[in-house]
Protein backbone atom coordinates (compact mmCIF):
# COMPACT_ATOMS: atom_id res chain seq x y z
CA UNK A 1 0.00 0.00 0.00
CA UNK A 2 1.40 3.40 -0.92
CA UNK A 3 1.52 6.12 1.72
CA UNK A 4 -1.76 7.82 2.49
CA UNK A 5 -1.91 11.46 1.59
CA UNK A 6 -5.67 11.96 1.81
CA UNK A 7 -6.81 13.24 5.16
CA UNK A 8 -9.47 15.39 6.68
CA UNK A 9 -8.16 17.93 9.14
CA UNK A 10 -10.61 20.23 10.89
CA UNK A 11 -10.56 23.91 10.03
CA UNK A 12 -9.68 26.45 12.72
CA UNK A 13 -12.47 28.93 13.41
CA UNK A 14 -11.05 32.26 14.39
CA UNK A 15 -12.92 34.77 16.51
CA UNK A 16 -12.24 38.45 16.39
CA UNK A 17 -14.55 39.86 19.08
CA UNK A 18 -13.99 39.02 22.71
CA UNK A 19 -16.65 41.27 24.25
CA UNK A 20 -14.71 41.55 27.52
CA UNK A 21 -14.13 44.35 30.02
CA UNK A 22 -11.64 47.10 29.10
CA UNK A 23 -8.83 45.50 31.16
CA UNK A 24 -9.52 42.13 29.51
CA UNK A 25 -9.52 43.69 26.04
CA UNK A 26 -6.30 45.59 26.79
CA UNK A 27 -4.53 42.41 27.95
CA UNK A 28 -5.76 40.44 24.94
CA UNK A 29 -4.44 43.22 22.67
CA UNK A 30 -1.06 42.92 24.37
CA UNK A 31 -1.03 39.15 23.81
CA UNK A 32 -2.07 39.59 20.18
CA UNK A 33 0.84 41.96 19.65
CA UNK A 34 3.33 39.60 21.25
CA UNK A 35 2.34 36.64 19.08
CA UNK A 36 1.69 38.32 15.74
CA UNK A 37 4.36 37.95 13.07
CA UNK A 38 3.89 40.43 10.23
CA UNK A 39 4.90 39.47 6.68
CA UNK A 40 7.98 41.74 6.93
CA UNK A 41 9.05 40.16 10.19
CA UNK A 42 8.49 36.68 8.75
CA UNK A 43 10.82 37.60 5.88
CA UNK A 44 13.47 38.77 8.34
CA UNK A 45 13.24 35.48 10.24
CA UNK A 46 13.51 33.52 6.98
CA UNK A 47 16.62 35.43 5.92
CA UNK A 48 18.27 34.74 9.25
CA UNK A 49 17.27 31.08 8.96
CA UNK A 50 18.87 30.88 5.53
CA UNK A 51 22.11 32.49 6.68
CA UNK A 52 22.26 30.08 9.64
CA UNK A 53 21.79 27.16 7.22
CA UNK A 54 24.78 28.36 5.20
CA UNK A 55 26.89 28.70 8.36
CA UNK A 56 26.03 25.13 9.28
CA UNK A 57 27.03 23.90 5.83
CA UNK A 58 30.33 25.75 5.99
CA UNK A 59 31.53 24.86 9.47
CA UNK A 60 31.07 22.31 12.26
CA UNK A 61 29.31 23.10 15.55
CA UNK A 62 26.96 25.79 14.29
CA UNK A 63 23.53 26.47 15.78
CA UNK A 64 21.73 24.78 12.90
CA UNK A 65 23.99 21.76 12.82
CA UNK A 66 23.32 20.72 9.16
CA UNK A 67 24.46 17.14 9.70
CA UNK A 68 25.39 15.10 6.60
CA UNK A 69 23.30 11.92 6.79
CA UNK A 70 25.61 9.77 4.64
CA UNK A 71 22.58 8.94 2.51
CA UNK A 72 23.97 9.68 -0.93
CA UNK A 73 21.99 10.22 -4.09
CA UNK A 74 18.31 9.58 -4.71
CA UNK A 75 16.01 6.57 -4.62
CA UNK A 76 15.40 4.75 -7.87
CA UNK A 77 12.02 3.29 -6.89
CA UNK A 78 13.58 -0.18 -7.29
CA UNK A 79 14.19 -0.64 -3.58
CA UNK A 80 12.71 -3.98 -2.49
CA UNK A 81 13.02 -6.46 0.38
CA UNK A 82 12.06 -7.08 3.97
CA UNK A 83 13.55 -4.88 6.66
CA UNK A 84 12.94 -4.09 10.29
CA UNK A 85 12.66 -0.51 11.50
CA UNK A 86 12.96 0.76 15.03
CA UNK A 87 11.54 4.16 15.84
CA UNK A 88 12.65 5.96 19.00
CA UNK A 89 11.95 9.60 19.67
CA UNK A 90 8.29 10.17 18.88
CA UNK A 91 5.41 9.57 21.25
CA UNK A 92 6.00 5.80 21.42
CA UNK A 93 8.72 3.29 20.69
CA UNK A 94 7.76 1.31 17.60
CA UNK A 95 9.09 -1.80 15.94
CA UNK A 96 8.03 -2.12 12.32
CA UNK A 97 8.39 -4.89 9.77
CA UNK A 98 8.47 -3.30 6.33
CA UNK A 99 8.10 -5.18 3.08
CA UNK A 100 9.33 -2.89 0.30
CA UNK A 101 7.78 -3.87 -3.01
CA UNK A 102 9.17 -1.12 -5.28
CA UNK A 103 7.82 2.12 -6.79
CA UNK A 104 6.24 3.42 -3.61
CA UNK A 105 4.52 0.16 -2.68
CA UNK A 106 5.02 -1.45 0.66
CA UNK A 107 3.28 -3.21 3.53
CA UNK A 108 4.02 -2.74 7.20
CA UNK A 109 3.27 -4.53 10.45
CA UNK A 110 4.12 -2.69 13.62
CA UNK A 111 3.83 -2.78 17.39
CA UNK A 112 3.99 0.22 19.72
CA UNK A 113 5.57 0.15 23.16
CA UNK A 114 5.23 2.80 25.83
CA UNK A 115 8.51 4.24 27.10
CA UNK A 116 8.00 5.24 30.73
CA UNK A 117 9.26 8.57 32.05
CA UNK A 118 11.75 6.73 34.25
CA UNK A 119 13.25 5.01 31.19
CA UNK A 120 13.37 8.35 29.37
CA UNK A 121 15.41 9.95 32.11
CA UNK A 122 17.28 6.99 33.68
CA UNK A 123 20.46 5.12 32.71
CA UNK A 124 20.66 4.64 28.94
CA UNK A 125 21.56 0.95 29.44
CA UNK A 126 18.11 0.33 30.93
CA UNK A 127 16.55 2.03 27.92
CA UNK A 128 18.48 -0.17 25.47
CA UNK A 129 17.73 -3.36 27.43
CA UNK A 130 14.07 -2.45 27.22
CA UNK A 131 14.36 -1.80 23.47
CA UNK A 132 16.14 -5.12 22.89
CA UNK A 133 13.33 -6.90 24.78
CA UNK A 134 10.73 -5.13 22.62
CA UNK A 135 12.49 -6.19 19.40
CA UNK A 136 12.83 -9.74 20.73
CA UNK A 137 9.15 -10.02 21.54
CA UNK A 138 8.25 -8.46 18.16
CA UNK A 139 10.24 -11.17 16.35
CA UNK A 140 8.44 -13.86 18.36
CA UNK A 141 5.03 -12.24 17.92
CA UNK A 142 5.48 -12.10 14.14
CA UNK A 143 7.19 -15.46 13.83
CA UNK A 144 10.25 -13.95 12.20
CA UNK A 145 12.97 -16.49 11.74
CA UNK A 146 15.59 -15.83 9.11
CA UNK A 147 17.62 -18.94 9.86
CA UNK A 148 21.25 -18.06 10.38
CA UNK A 149 21.09 -14.65 8.64
CA UNK A 150 20.64 -11.52 10.72
CA UNK A 151 17.63 -9.35 9.96
CA UNK A 152 18.66 -5.87 8.79
CA UNK A 153 17.26 -3.02 10.83
CA UNK A 154 17.08 0.70 10.12
CA UNK A 155 17.20 2.59 13.39
CA UNK A 156 15.23 5.84 13.37
CA UNK A 157 16.78 7.76 16.21
CA UNK A 158 15.11 11.16 16.29
CA UNK A 159 17.69 13.12 18.24
CA UNK A 160 20.75 15.09 17.15
CA UNK A 161 23.60 12.75 16.21
CA UNK A 162 26.85 13.60 14.43
CA UNK A 163 27.01 10.84 11.85
CA UNK A 164 30.29 9.41 10.61
CA UNK A 165 28.83 6.63 8.43
CA UNK A 166 25.37 5.51 7.44
CA UNK A 167 25.34 3.26 10.53
CA UNK A 168 27.66 5.14 12.86
CA UNK A 169 27.40 8.39 14.82
CA UNK A 170 27.84 10.09 18.17
CA UNK A 171 24.87 11.45 20.04
CA UNK A 172 25.04 15.21 20.52
CA UNK A 173 22.19 15.77 22.95
CA UNK A 174 18.72 14.68 24.03
CA UNK A 175 15.53 16.63 23.25
CA UNK A 176 11.75 16.27 23.73
CA UNK A 177 11.62 15.07 27.34
CA UNK A 178 14.38 12.44 27.06
CA UNK A 179 17.42 12.90 29.28
CA UNK A 180 19.11 9.52 29.89
CA UNK A 181 22.54 9.42 31.45
CA UNK A 182 25.44 7.72 29.68
CA UNK A 183 24.37 8.44 26.09
CA UNK A 184 25.92 11.74 25.05
CA UNK A 185 29.09 11.23 23.00
CA UNK A 186 28.20 7.54 22.49
CA UNK A 187 27.10 5.76 19.32
CA UNK A 188 23.39 4.83 19.53
CA UNK A 189 23.99 1.98 17.05
CA UNK A 190 26.65 0.39 19.23
CA UNK A 191 24.52 0.77 22.35
CA UNK A 192 21.62 -0.93 20.58
CA UNK A 193 23.75 -3.63 18.91
CA UNK A 194 25.38 -4.51 22.26
CA UNK A 195 22.03 -4.79 24.01
CA UNK A 196 20.75 -7.04 21.19
CA UNK A 197 23.90 -9.18 21.29
CA UNK A 198 23.57 -9.72 25.05
CA UNK A 199 20.09 -11.09 24.54
CA UNK A 200 21.06 -13.07 21.40
CA UNK A 201 18.56 -11.22 19.23
CA UNK A 202 19.56 -11.91 15.57
CA UNK A 203 19.27 -8.36 14.26
CA UNK A 204 21.92 -6.26 12.49
CA UNK A 205 21.58 -2.48 12.84
CA UNK A 206 22.58 -1.43 9.34
CA UNK A 207 21.38 2.19 9.18
CA UNK A 208 21.04 5.05 11.63
CA UNK A 209 18.47 7.50 10.40
CA UNK A 210 16.89 10.68 11.66
CA UNK A 211 13.10 10.70 11.32
CA UNK A 212 13.26 13.66 8.91
CA UNK A 213 15.64 11.75 6.64
CA UNK A 214 13.27 8.77 6.81
CA UNK A 215 10.34 11.03 5.98
CA UNK A 216 12.16 12.41 2.96
CA UNK A 217 12.97 8.89 1.75
CA UNK A 218 9.49 7.50 2.29
CA UNK A 219 7.96 10.44 0.41
CA UNK A 220 10.51 10.11 -2.39
CA UNK A 221 9.68 6.41 -2.78
CA UNK A 222 6.40 7.35 -4.48
CA UNK A 223 7.17 11.00 -5.39
CA UNK A 224 10.59 11.23 -7.05
CA UNK A 225 10.53 15.06 -7.03
CA UNK A 226 10.76 15.12 -3.24
CA UNK A 227 13.59 17.21 -1.92
CA UNK A 228 12.75 17.63 1.75
CA UNK A 229 11.28 15.73 4.69
CA UNK A 230 9.96 17.57 7.69
CA UNK A 231 8.53 16.65 11.09
CA UNK A 232 6.06 18.93 12.82
CA UNK A 233 5.12 16.66 15.70
CA UNK A 234 6.22 16.23 19.32
CA UNK A 235 9.44 17.90 18.13
CA UNK A 236 10.38 19.59 14.85
CA UNK A 237 13.15 19.28 12.33
CA UNK A 238 13.84 19.04 8.61
CA UNK A 239 16.07 17.26 6.11
CA UNK A 240 16.68 18.11 2.47
CA UNK A 241 18.86 17.12 -0.47
CA UNK A 242 21.97 19.29 -0.82
CA UNK A 243 24.67 19.43 -3.46
CA UNK A 244 27.98 18.03 -2.18
CA UNK A 245 29.72 21.15 -3.54
CA UNK A 246 27.70 23.31 -1.12
CA UNK A 247 28.63 21.21 1.94
CA UNK A 248 31.89 23.09 2.45
CA UNK A 249 32.66 21.43 5.77
CA UNK A 250 32.55 17.92 4.24
CA UNK A 251 35.66 15.90 5.07
CA UNK A 252 34.24 12.47 4.39
CA UNK A 253 36.12 11.85 1.14
CA UNK A 254 34.69 10.86 -2.24
CA UNK A 255 31.02 9.96 -2.42
CA UNK A 256 29.06 7.85 -4.87
CA UNK A 257 26.80 10.79 -5.77
CA UNK A 258 27.05 14.57 -6.01
CA UNK A 259 24.12 14.96 -3.59
CA UNK A 260 23.51 14.03 0.02
CA UNK A 261 20.62 14.34 2.45
CA UNK A 262 21.31 16.83 5.24
CA UNK A 263 19.67 16.42 8.65
CA UNK A 264 19.37 20.08 9.57
CA UNK A 265 18.43 19.87 13.28
CA UNK A 266 16.65 23.19 12.84
CA UNK A 267 14.96 22.93 16.25
CA UNK A 268 18.02 24.74 17.62
CA UNK A 269 17.60 27.67 15.21
CA UNK A 270 18.23 31.00 16.94
CA UNK A 271 19.14 29.60 20.35
CA UNK A 272 20.99 32.95 20.58
CA UNK A 273 17.61 34.71 20.27
CA UNK A 274 18.69 37.14 17.60
CA UNK A 275 15.48 37.20 15.63
CA UNK A 276 12.74 34.97 17.07
CA UNK A 277 9.85 36.78 18.77
CA UNK A 278 10.38 35.05 22.12
CA UNK A 279 7.75 36.15 24.68
CA UNK A 280 7.93 35.98 28.50
CA UNK A 281 5.61 32.93 28.25
CA UNK A 282 8.12 31.17 25.99
CA UNK A 283 10.89 32.06 28.42
CA UNK A 284 8.96 30.56 31.30
CA UNK A 285 8.49 27.31 29.36
CA UNK A 286 12.16 27.24 28.41
CA UNK A 287 13.37 27.92 31.96
CA UNK A 288 11.20 25.13 33.40
CA UNK A 289 12.09 22.61 30.66
CA UNK A 290 14.72 19.89 31.06
CA UNK A 291 16.85 21.53 28.34
CA UNK A 292 16.84 25.29 29.05
CA UNK A 293 18.35 27.57 26.36
CA UNK A 294 18.27 24.72 23.86
CA UNK A 295 15.89 24.01 20.97
CA UNK A 296 14.21 27.41 21.22
CA UNK A 297 12.72 27.25 17.71
CA UNK A 298 11.43 23.73 18.38
CA UNK A 299 9.83 24.98 21.59
CA UNK A 300 7.85 27.60 19.64
CA UNK A 301 6.56 25.29 16.93
CA UNK A 302 6.11 21.74 18.25
CA UNK A 303 3.28 19.67 19.65
CA UNK A 304 5.07 18.95 22.90
CA UNK A 305 5.20 22.65 23.75
CA UNK A 306 2.30 24.63 22.26
CA UNK A 307 -0.13 23.72 25.04
CA UNK A 308 2.42 24.72 27.64
CA UNK A 309 2.95 28.15 26.04
CA UNK A 310 -0.82 28.67 26.01
CA UNK A 311 -1.04 27.52 29.65
CA UNK A 312 1.56 30.11 30.66
CA UNK A 313 -0.47 32.85 28.95
CA UNK A 314 -3.73 31.67 30.56
CA UNK A 315 -2.18 31.57 34.03
CA UNK A 316 -1.00 35.15 33.67
CA UNK A 317 -4.56 36.13 32.78
CA UNK A 318 -5.86 34.22 35.82
CA UNK A 319 -3.31 35.92 38.09
CA UNK A 320 -4.49 39.31 36.84
CA UNK A 321 -8.11 38.24 37.56
CA UNK A 322 -8.90 38.63 33.89
CA UNK A 323 -9.88 35.00 33.33
CA UNK A 324 -12.11 32.50 35.21
CA UNK A 325 -12.72 35.19 37.86
CA UNK A 326 -9.16 34.59 39.02
CA UNK A 327 -9.65 30.86 39.77
CA UNK A 328 -7.49 28.12 38.33
CA UNK A 329 -7.42 24.33 38.94
CA UNK A 330 -4.90 21.67 39.86
CA UNK A 331 -4.81 20.59 36.20
CA UNK A 332 -4.24 24.07 34.80
CA UNK A 333 -1.63 24.75 37.47
CA UNK A 334 0.39 21.65 36.55
CA UNK A 335 3.24 21.81 34.06
CA UNK A 336 2.07 20.27 30.74
CA UNK A 337 -1.50 20.30 32.19
CA UNK A 338 -2.93 22.12 29.15
CA UNK A 339 -2.38 19.63 26.36
CA UNK A 340 -1.87 20.65 22.75
CA UNK A 341 -4.79 18.34 21.84
CA UNK A 342 -7.05 20.65 23.89
CA UNK A 343 -5.88 23.48 21.66
CA UNK A 344 -6.90 21.46 18.60
CA UNK A 345 -10.39 20.94 20.00
CA UNK A 346 -10.71 24.60 20.96
CA UNK A 347 -9.40 25.90 17.62
CA UNK A 348 -11.91 23.72 15.73
CA UNK A 349 -14.81 24.82 17.95
CA UNK A 350 -17.35 27.08 16.29
CA UNK A 351 -20.66 28.77 16.98
CA UNK A 352 -21.52 31.48 19.50
CA UNK A 353 -21.61 29.37 22.63
CA UNK A 354 -18.25 27.59 22.09
CA UNK A 355 -19.60 24.43 23.74
CA UNK A 356 -16.50 22.31 23.12
CA UNK A 357 -14.22 24.96 24.57
CA UNK A 358 -16.47 25.16 27.61
CA UNK A 359 -16.37 21.37 27.97
CA UNK A 360 -12.55 21.23 27.81
CA UNK A 361 -12.22 24.00 30.39
CA UNK A 362 -14.83 22.76 32.83
CA UNK A 363 -14.57 18.95 32.41
CA UNK A 364 -10.99 18.24 31.34
CA UNK A 365 -9.37 21.08 33.25
CA UNK A 366 -11.86 21.32 36.13
CA UNK A 367 -12.05 25.11 36.09
CA UNK A 368 -14.88 25.95 38.54
CA UNK A 369 -16.51 28.83 36.67
CA UNK A 370 -16.25 29.42 32.94
CA UNK A 371 -18.03 32.29 31.17
CA UNK A 372 -18.53 32.82 27.45
CA UNK A 373 -15.99 35.65 27.50
CA UNK A 374 -13.51 33.26 29.15
CA UNK A 375 -14.10 30.76 26.33
CA UNK A 376 -13.49 33.45 23.73
CA UNK A 377 -10.28 34.61 25.40
CA UNK A 378 -8.97 31.04 25.63
CA UNK A 379 -9.86 30.43 21.99
CA UNK A 380 -8.05 33.59 20.94
CA UNK A 381 -4.93 32.56 22.86
CA UNK A 382 -4.92 29.11 21.20
CA UNK A 383 -5.34 30.74 17.79
CA UNK A 384 -2.37 33.05 18.43
CA UNK A 385 -0.05 30.32 19.68
CA UNK A 386 -1.07 27.91 16.89
CA UNK A 387 -0.83 30.51 14.13
CA UNK A 388 2.58 31.73 15.24
CA UNK A 389 3.85 28.13 15.20
CA UNK A 390 2.62 27.54 11.65
CA UNK A 391 4.07 30.84 10.38
CA UNK A 392 7.46 30.04 11.89
CA UNK A 393 7.21 26.61 10.29
CA UNK A 394 6.64 28.40 6.96
CA UNK A 395 9.87 30.37 7.47
CA UNK A 396 11.79 27.10 7.82
CA UNK A 397 10.21 25.65 4.68
CA UNK A 398 10.93 28.85 2.75
CA UNK A 399 14.56 28.72 3.94
CA UNK A 400 14.92 25.16 2.61
CA UNK A 401 13.20 26.05 -0.67
CA UNK A 402 15.45 29.06 -1.24
CA UNK A 403 18.64 27.18 -0.37
CA UNK A 404 17.79 24.27 -2.67
CA UNK A 405 16.47 26.54 -5.45
CA UNK A 406 13.36 24.38 -5.65
CA UNK A 407 10.91 27.19 -6.31
CA UNK A 408 11.70 27.48 -10.03
CA UNK A 409 11.35 23.78 -10.80
CA UNK A 410 8.86 22.88 -8.10
CA UNK A 411 9.27 20.09 -5.56
CA UNK A 412 7.44 17.80 -3.17
CA UNK A 413 8.00 18.11 0.55
CA UNK A 414 6.97 15.17 2.73
CA UNK A 415 5.76 16.17 6.17
CA UNK A 416 4.90 13.94 9.11
CA UNK A 417 3.97 14.62 12.72
CA UNK A 418 0.87 15.14 14.81
CA UNK A 419 0.68 18.93 14.38
CA UNK A 420 0.77 18.75 10.61
CA UNK A 421 -1.56 15.77 10.55
CA UNK A 422 -4.18 16.82 13.07
CA UNK A 423 -3.91 20.44 14.20
CA UNK A 424 -6.70 22.56 12.67
CA UNK A 425 -5.54 24.71 9.74
CA UNK A 426 -1.86 24.15 10.50
CA UNK A 427 -1.17 23.43 6.84
CA UNK A 428 -3.29 26.34 5.55
CA UNK A 429 -1.48 28.71 7.87
CA UNK A 430 1.88 27.46 6.59
CA UNK A 431 0.64 27.99 3.04
CA UNK A 432 -0.46 31.51 3.88
CA UNK A 433 3.03 32.18 5.29
CA UNK A 434 4.59 30.88 2.07
CA UNK A 435 2.36 33.16 -0.01
CA UNK A 436 3.66 36.12 2.00
CA UNK A 437 7.27 34.96 1.73
CA UNK A 438 7.12 34.52 -2.05
CA UNK A 439 5.07 37.52 -3.19
CA UNK A 440 6.48 37.24 -6.72
CA UNK A 441 5.47 33.61 -7.17
CA UNK A 442 1.68 33.58 -7.45
CA UNK A 443 1.41 29.78 -7.54
CA UNK A 444 3.89 29.10 -4.74
CA UNK A 445 1.69 26.45 -3.11
CA UNK A 446 1.64 24.54 -6.37
CA UNK A 447 5.40 24.76 -6.72
CA UNK A 448 6.24 23.82 -3.14
CA UNK A 449 3.90 20.88 -2.75
CA UNK A 450 3.42 19.93 0.89
CA UNK A 451 1.98 16.50 1.60
CA UNK A 452 1.58 14.06 4.44
CA UNK A 453 4.35 11.45 4.41
CA UNK A 454 3.00 8.73 6.63
CA UNK A 455 5.43 6.60 8.55
CA UNK A 456 8.74 8.08 7.53
CA UNK A 457 10.24 6.56 10.64
CA UNK A 458 9.19 3.06 9.62
CA UNK A 459 9.24 2.93 5.83
CA UNK A 460 11.97 5.58 5.63
CA UNK A 461 14.24 3.63 7.96
CA UNK A 462 13.67 0.47 5.90
CA UNK A 463 14.53 2.41 2.73
CA UNK A 464 17.63 3.74 4.44
CA UNK A 465 18.69 0.21 5.39
CA UNK A 466 18.14 -0.75 1.76
CA UNK A 467 20.16 2.26 0.51
CA UNK A 468 22.95 1.35 2.98
CA UNK A 469 23.06 -2.11 1.48
CA UNK A 470 23.24 -0.68 -2.06
CA UNK A 471 25.91 1.86 -1.11
CA UNK A 472 27.98 -0.90 0.46
CA UNK A 473 27.68 -2.89 -2.76
CA UNK A 474 28.75 0.14 -4.81
CA UNK A 475 31.60 1.07 -2.52
CA UNK A 476 32.90 -1.93 -0.55
CA UNK A 477 34.68 0.18 2.08
CA UNK A 478 31.41 1.71 3.47
C1 LIG B 1 15.23 16.19 17.31
C2 LIG B 1 15.34 15.84 15.84
C3 LIG B 1 14.06 15.21 15.34
C4 LIG B 1 12.86 16.09 15.70
C5 LIG B 1 11.54 15.50 15.25
C6 LIG B 1 13.96 16.99 17.57
O1 LIG B 1 13.81 17.18 18.94
O2 LIG B 1 16.36 16.92 17.72
O3 LIG B 1 16.43 14.95 15.63
O4 LIG B 1 14.14 15.05 13.96
O5 LIG B 1 12.82 16.29 17.09
O6 LIG B 1 11.30 14.26 15.84
UniProtKB/TrEMBL annotation:
Its EC number is 2.7.1.-. Residues 228-467 form the Hexokinase C-terminal domain. InterPro entries: ATPase_NBD, Hexokinase, Hexokinase_C, Hexokinase_N. It catalyses: D-glucose + ATP = D-glucose 6-phosphate + ADP + H(+); a D-hexose + ATP = a D-hexose 6-phosphate + ADP + H(+). Keywords: ATP-binding, Glycolysis, Kinase, Nucleotide-binding, Transferase. One of its GO terms (cellular component) is mitochondrion. The keyword RNA-binding does not apply. GO terms for biological process: glucose metabolic process; glycolytic process; intracellular glucose homeostasis. Pathway: Carbohydrate degradation; glycolysis; D-glyceraldehyde 3-phosphate and glycerone phosphate from D-glucose: step 1/4; Carbohydrate metabolism; hexose metabolism. Belongs to the hexokinase family. This is Phosphotransferase. It comes from Umbelopsis vinacea. The lineage of its organism: Eukaryota, Fungi, Fungi incertae sedis, Mucoromycota, Mucoromycotina.
Amino acid sequence: MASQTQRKVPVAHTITTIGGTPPQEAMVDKIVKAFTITPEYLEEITQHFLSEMKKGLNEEDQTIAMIPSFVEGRLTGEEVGQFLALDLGGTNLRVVLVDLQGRGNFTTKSTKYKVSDSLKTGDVKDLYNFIADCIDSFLTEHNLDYGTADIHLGYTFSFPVYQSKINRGLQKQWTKGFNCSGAIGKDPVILLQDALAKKHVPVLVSALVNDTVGTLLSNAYSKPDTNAGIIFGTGSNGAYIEKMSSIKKWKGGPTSSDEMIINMEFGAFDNERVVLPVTPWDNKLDRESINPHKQIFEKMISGMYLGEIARNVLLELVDRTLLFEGYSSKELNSQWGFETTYMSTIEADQGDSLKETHRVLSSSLNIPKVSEVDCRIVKRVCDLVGTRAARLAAAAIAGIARQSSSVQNGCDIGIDGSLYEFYPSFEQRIEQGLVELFPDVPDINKRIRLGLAKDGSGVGAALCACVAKKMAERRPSV
